[in-house]
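Incident review: delayed structure delivery

Summary: a single-chain prediction request sat in the queue longer than the usual turnaround. Root cause was a stuck worker, restarted by the on-call engineer. No data loss occurred. The affected request and its eventual output are reproduced below so the record is complete for anyone auditing the incident later.

Affected input:
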Amino acid sequence: MRFLALLALASVSMFGHHAFSAEFDFNKPLKMRGVVTKVEFINPHSWIHIDVTDDAGKVTSWMIEGGSPNTLFRRGINKDSLPKGTVVMVDGYQAKDGSNRANGRDITLADGKKLFVGGSTPAEQPK
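Output delivered after worker restart:
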């Protein structure tokens, strides 16, 4: 009986995790420039929050999903890599529901350094 309970709990957590195609649209790539407002390293994904200002001066907040914290740590990326106020260029894919969420692939810093933050993107290797 205890085994069945553990199996049921394990299956719930498996279904809680999503694939790229469940939430993001590979046919809607985007590139945006913004300012980092917050970085969250929480499983199963990291989240980079940025404010994007359009040509009219309107600011829109975006959530950029990255790979798992462990994946980013192994790539040398941590919270100190993207301090609040850092200007970044994000390459990623729009959320299917049209919200201000994207799956990030690359983040380019002002000095040209690229950080590959992808986790569940269709192509796992940096460009």
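Verification: The mean pLDDT is 84.
Action items: add queue-age alerting; document worker restart procedure.
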